[in-house]
TrEMBL record, chains A, B, C, D, E, F, G, H:
Domain PurE positions: 87-219
The organism's place on the tree of life at top rank: Bacteria
SMART domains assigned to the protein according to its UniProt record, in alphabetical order: AIRC (SM01001)
Species this chain originates from: Mesonia phycicola
NCBIfam families assigned to the protein according to its UniProt record, in alphabetical order: LarB
Entries under PANTHER family matching the protein: PHOSPHORIBOSYLAMINOIMIDAZOLE CARBOXYLASE-RELATED, SLL1489 PROTEIN
Designated name of the protein: PurE domain-containing protein
UniProt-listed GO biological process terms: 'de novo' IMP biosynthetic process
TM region(s), chain numbering: none
Family annotation (InterPro entries): P2CMN_synthase_LarB, PurE_dom
Length: 220, 220, 220, 220, 220, 220, 220, 220
C-alpha cells in the first residue's frame, strides 16, 4: 500500500506562508518522518496542538526544538522574538484560562515573522480593566480577541475600537459553555459591527487571518 | 365529553398573585368563556402573548379593556400607573427591537401593583450609553435586563452593579441569533456573578421573579 | 512575553463581594502564584470546581486550608458556620446525587457570610417527602432548588411557595438527561411563575444570585 | 407512471386494529380516492391530523362524516360513545392548551371501541388540583398523561400512582419549550419509574399503546 | 451540615415496588451507608448502573451479594429465577452489543418477581432471524425491544405483533449513532402504531413499565 | 453593477449531464432570463423544486412546458417515457406522502434518458407489502429507497437485497420526525451494509447518483 | 412610559462609521420617527434587511430614497457609485441564489464610500469558472466570499489566494443545508488557513469587517 | 439465561458477502467465542473497529491473524493483495489524519476480493495536488472520497469527475469540526450532483457500497 504523504510545497509561493503541521491527530512515527524532511533541509517548521506526551519524545530527538506546554506549539528551532520593534498585533484575552489559545496565536505570528503582544485577563466582568488599557490597545494595527464562557469581550471592544478585530472563542467553561459553542455563537451574533470569527480554540487561524492583513499592509 | 377547565383560585393565597391567562394557544371561544367569569365577578385579569387578531375581537366585546400591541398584553381594565411614587424596578433593554418583551414585564408588574421604569436601547455596542445612565440605574432595587443578538448586556451590567439582576434573552436576531437561543446560552454562561435567567422572550416570568423579591422585601 | 494576570480588586467595592477563583482550568503553578498573593495579605479566598489531584498539592502547601471533595470548593481558611443564627436560605436538592452542587452553594454562601441549610433528597418522585417539610421550607427567605434528571422539583415548589426561587439544573443523569441540558430547559420552560435559572451545576452562581437579594434586604 | 397506493388490509388480523390514514400530508384528491374505497364498502375509517381547510371539502362530500377541529380527527361516521359503561382509560392533561392532543387520544380510543375520560387542566403549578382528583384517577386501568411546557405532570403522577402511564409531550410553549422537545426529553429523563413516552403531539400513538394493553387484558 | 438522606419507604405501598438505588453517581461511602440499612433489616435491594470498580469493593463487604458485569446490576442477595414457570415478558435485542441493557431489564424484572426471557441478536439486517422466531415471540404477554444503531427493530416488530411493546434505544454505535440519540428518535418517530419508548439504555425503566402492566393484569 | 450569471456549459463534457436549475430560490425574472437562453437554443432544461405560483407564470410563457405539482419539476418540453424498454432503476417509497420525492427522482432520470419505475407505499409497518414484491424489486439494477418518519425501509431492504441502494430521507413527519433529520440519521446509522444516503428530500441527487452508476455500466 | 430611543451619535468618532438601522424588527411607525431625524438633518442613513411591504410605505414618503429588493437595503438617498476608480474589494458569490447577500455587502460598502465589484456564480461544482477568473480576483485588496449549501468556496479560494478573506455563509439550501448552519460550520472548520467568518446572511457585517481593514490601509 | 448469539449465515447467499463482526463494543470473551467458530471451520472473518488492547490478546491466540493499528481491522488470516491486476476503486483522502478510515475501506475491499488503491493527502487547501493527479483518478471505476474538517473534497471532485462517488466524513478536527458532524452535513448538502454519503468514519460502509456496484458491473 502506497503511504506517500504530500507536502504542499508551493504554498509559500501562492499564499506567502509555508504549510504548517496539525499535530493533534498524527502519530509520533508519522511526525518523525515529516520532521526529518525539514531537519535535513535545515528549515524550521511549525507544529500545532501537539500533545505533551508526543512532544516529549520529539524533544528528545531534536535537542534544540521548542515546545510550549500551554498551547502545544512545537518548532524545530525557537524563534527569537525579543527585538525592540513595536508589536503590530494585540492579542487580548478575557480570562487567564484562555492562555493556551493566546500563546498559539502569539507563536504562530512569531514563526511568520510578526511581532505581537498579549494582554491577559481583561474580561468584561471587570470593565475598568479593559477601559484602563484602552489607549495601549488603540496602538495596535489589528486585534485578536480571545474569550470563553459567554464570549462578550469582542462585542464590547468592537463598540469601542476601530481596528480589524478577529474574535476567537475558547472551550473554557462548563454546562452551557462547555466546548465553546456558546462563545462562538455569541461572537457571530454580535451586535457590534465588523467583527469576524474563527473556529473554537483556533489561535493559529486567527494569527493567519491577521497575517493576511499584515501582508496586504506591507504590499501598499 | 367533559370540557370543564380549572382555574387555580387558591394561587393568590399560596403565592400572593392570581393565575394569569396564557393567551397564545387559546381560541377566542375559550378566552371569551374565561373572561366572562372575571367580568361577571368584576375583577381584572391579565392575559399574555395575545395575538392581535384575537385581541381585536375581544376588545369589541369589552370596551374598557386594555391591549398593548407591542407585547400582546391584554387586561379587562387598564392599570393606572401614573402616580408619582418612584419606580422600584428598572427594565433595561439593549435595543429598540426588544420593546415587546420590555412592555410585557412592565405591564405585568403594573398589574401586580409594582411601579417600574423602562430604559431603552443602551446595548454594549455603544458602551457610553450605559455608562452615562449608571447612576440612575443604581437607584433601582432590582434590574430586569433584556437583550437579543449575543445577549452581552446582562454580563456587563452584572460586573458594574450590585443589585439582583434577572436576564431575559429575546428572539431578536437572524442566522446564529435566530430564535434567541444564543442570547439565552450566553446569559447562562455569563462570567459575571449571580445573574439569573428566564425563558426566551419571557418578560412576564422576569416580572414575576422580581415580584417574589418585592414581596420578600415588603415582609421585612 | 508578559504574563501578568489582573485581579479585579475593585469588585468588592462595586458589587459587595470579592473576586473568586475558577479553579477547574488553571494549572497548579498559576494557582500557587495567585494563592500566594492572598496568603501574604493574610486574607481568605474562595476557589471553585478545583479537581481533587490539584487540591491535594495545594493542601500540602497550605496546612490550614479547607477542601470539600463533593463540590471541589477550596478556601485558604475554613469558615466557621456553626453559630446559632437561623439559616436565611434553604438549599433544596432533589436527589442525593446533587450533593456536590448543594455543597458548592452552601460553602459559597458561608464564605460570603450568609447562613444556609441544605435539605437533601426530596424530589417529586416521592412527593410526600416534599409536602412533609413544606412548613420548614416556608421559613427560608430565599430558596435554591437543585435537580438533575428531568428537573421537575423547582416547578412543583414554585407552585407551592411564594419566595424567590433560584433553580439549578445538575448534570446528573444519562441518555436524554446526560450533561444536564434537559433539566436546564425544563426549568426555563417551567409552567410555574417567577422561577429564575442559572447554568448547569452552577451552585456558586445560585449562591451569588441569592447573595444579591440578601444585600438588597439588608439595605432596607 | 403507476400510482396505485397499497392499503394494509391484513393489519386488523395481525394487530387487532385497522390501518389509519395520516391526513396531514395527503392532498384532498388522494384522500378522496382513499375515502371512496371505505365509503363504497360502507366501513368507517379514521383520519388523523387533518387540516381544517381540507376537512371542509371532505365534509361537503360526506354529509354524515365527523370532524373535530381541536384535534383534526375525521371519521366517515361519528362514534356513539355515550353509553353508560365506565371509562377504562384516563386521559389527563396539564393545561387547557393540550386539548387537541387529548381529543386525538379520546377519539382514537372511541374508534377502537374503548371508553375513556378526559380530565383537563390539572398541571403541577397548582398541585392541589391533581391531589383533589387522585381517587378518581386511581380508578382508571391505564393513564395517558399529556403536558407541554416543561412536561412535569407524568413524573409527579408516576410517583403517586401504580398504573401503566403513557406520557405524551405537546408542542405547547415558546422559547425553550417551542416544538415540544423539552417536554419530550423531560418525560424520557423522568426520575419516576416505569413511565413510557410517545412522540410529541402523538395522542393517536398513546391511544394505540393503551389499546395494546387493553387487548392483553381482554385476552386474560 | 445535615447529611440525612431520605429513603422513600412508602413507595411500595403507593406503587407496588420498593425504591431502587441509582448507583452510577453515588460514592462507595454513601452506598455503604445505604446498603447497611437494608442489610441490617435483612431485606434485599436493587442497585442499578453500578461501575465495576465500586462493585468490587462492595462485593468484598457483602459476600453473598450478586453483581452482573454486563449491566452493572447489584443486589444484596441473588434472585433465584430458575423455576419452571413460563416467561411472561420477552426481552428482544437487535444485536449482541445490546446485552447490557437486556440484562438490566432481565434482573430488574427478576427482582420484582417477574419471569422473563431474553432473545438475542435478531436485528432487521437479517430479517429471517426475526421471522423464524415469530411464533415464540407471540407467546409473551409484553415485549421489551432493545436496539442501538438506527433502532429499526421495534418498528418492524410493531407491524407484526399485537402485544404492548416497550422500545429501548441503546447507545451502541458511532458517528451519527453515537450516544443512542438516533435510535431514540427513530423509535419515537416510528410509523408502526402504539409503540412506547423509554430513555436510552434504560433497561430498568422498561422493566418497570412492564411491571406496571403485569400488576394491572394481576388485579383483573 | 455587473449581473452576469455563469452557466457551467462544460459540465456535460466533464460529467455526462447538463447543468440543472435549482428553482426554489430564484425569482421569476431571473428564471425567465435563464429559460430564454435555452428556449432560443431550442434545448430542453430541467428546473427543480419550483414553487407552484412561479410555475404558473412560466407555464403561461412556455405553452409546451411540463410541470409536476407533486415534485415541483419543470421542463421546457415534456419527456416521452412510455417506451416499452424495461425500467433499470426501482424507486421504492415507504408511504404515499413520499410521492413528491419519488417523482423528483423519476423525472430527473427521465430527463437524463434513464427509465425507472416507482413502487409506492410498501413501508415496514406492513412488512408483507414489501415481501410480496421482492421478486419484482430484485429485477432492478439499482434501488432508490425513499422514506420519512423513522426511515427504516432502506435498512430492511439492505438486509434482503444485493443491489446498490441509495437512501433518500424525506421531511414527512411531525414532532421528532419533523424536517426529516431523524430519517436521515437513521439511514446513515443503518446496521445494514453498504447503503449510501443523500440529503433530505433530495430525489434529484439520488437520481444523479444512480445516473453515475448507469454511466459506469454503459462504459463496460 | 418613556419611549425615547437612543442613537449612538458618537459612533462615527469612535469607529469611523455611523450607526446603521437594523430594519427587520422595527415597525413602520418607529422607522418613520427615526428617518425623520435624519431627513431633517439632511444626512443620509442606511437601513438593512428591510422587508418589501415596509419599504413601499417609506418609499412613498421619501421620494428620492433608494431600495434594493434583493437585499432589503434602504437609503434616504442613493449612492453614486459609477466613478471610474478601481474596486478594492471583490465580492465573490458561489451561486446566483446568493445575490441578496452580495448586494447587502455591495451597498453597505458603497454607503461607506468604498468601491467594490461583485463576481457572481463561480461555485466549486464548476471549478473552471473560478480558475478562469483567478487573475482578476488576485487584483482585489480584500475578498468577501459568499456561499450557501456546503459553503466550500472560501476554502478553495483560501488555498489559492493570499488576501484577507471574509467568508459569509448564506441560508440558501434545504434539508441539511436549511438555514445556513452547515455552510457556517464548514467555513469555520475550513482546512484553508486564515479565513474568518461572519454570521449567516450577514453581508453587512462582512462589509464592515472589510471597511475596518480599508481604514487601516488608509492610515498607513 | 440463554446467551446464544445468532450469526446471519444466509447473508452471503442473499447479499453476496458474509456477515462481518463489529468489534468495538464486544468483550474479548465474546469475540473469542465467535472467532473460534470461524477458526474451527477454517474460514476467514473480518472484524472492524477493534481496539488495540483487545487486538493484542486475540493476536496472541491466533498467531497468523492480521491486525491494522490505524483502522482497527482484524482478520483471522491476512489477505494477499499484491497481485498485479489494476485497482478498480480509488480511495482518495483529504489529509494524512484520515488514514485510519482509508485503511478500513481498503482492507474491507481486499477481504471482499476487490483491488483498490489509496491516494493520500490531496485536500482542497492545495488544489494543485488534486489537479495533478486527475488523470490517474479518472481511471478508477468508483471513487471513495474521505475528508474531515469541512469535508469539501467530495464536492470539488464531484464537479470534476463523472464516476460514482461515495463520500466518507471523518471525525478529524476540533471545535466546530469535532466528531465529524460538519464534514457529514457539508457532504450531504453538496452543490455537486450525485454524491452519496455514509456514516462518519465508516470506511467499511463505503467499501460495501462500492462492492454492491462492483457486483452489479460483474453481473453485466
Amino acid at each position: 500500500m502506497d503511504k506517500t504523504f504530500v507536502i504542499d510545497e508551493d504554498r509559500k509561493h501562492r499564499l506567502g506562508f509555508e504549510e504548517v503541521i496539525y499535530g493533534a491527530s498524527k502519530s509520533v512515527a508519522l511526525l518523525t518522518d515529516i520532521l526529518k524532511d525539514y531537519s535535513d533541509k535545515k528549515t524550521n517548521v511549525l507544529v500545532t496542538k501537539l500533545q505533551e506526551n508526543k512532544a516529549k519524545i520529539l524533544l528528545e530527538k531534536y535537542k534544540t526544538a521548542f515546545y510550549d506546554e500551554e498551547s502545544g506549539i512545537f518548532m524545530l528551532s525557537a524563534i527569537d522574538n525579543n527585538e525592540e520593534k513595536a508589536a503590530r498585533i494585540g492579542i487580548i484575552s478575557a480570562g487567564s484560562s484562555d492562555i493556551g489559545v493566546a500563546h498559539e496565536a502569539y507563536y504562530t505570528l512569531a514563526y511568520m515573522g510578526v511581532k505581537s503582544k498579549i494582554i491577559h485577563d481583561i474580561g468584561v466582568a471587570g470593565l475598568h480593566r479593559l477601559l484602563n488599557r484602552l489607549e495601549e490597545i488603540k496602538s495596535f494595527d489589528i486585534l485578536i480577541v480571545i474569550a470563553g464562557f459567554e464570549g462578550a469581550l469582542p462585542t464590547v471592544m468592537g463598540g469601542l475600537l476601530p481596528q480589524p478585530i478577529i474574535a476567537v472563542p475558547t472551550s473554557v467553561g462548563y454546562g452551557t459553555g462547555k466546548g465553546g459553542e456558546t462563545a462562538l455563537r455569541a461572537m457571530l451574533t454580535s451586535c457590534a459591527n465588523g467583527i469576524s470569527v474563527v473556529n473554537i480554540d483556533n489561535g493559529y487561524g486567527a494569527a493567519l487571518s491577521a497575517f493576511r492583513m499584515i501582508k496586504l499592509l506591507e504590499k501598499k
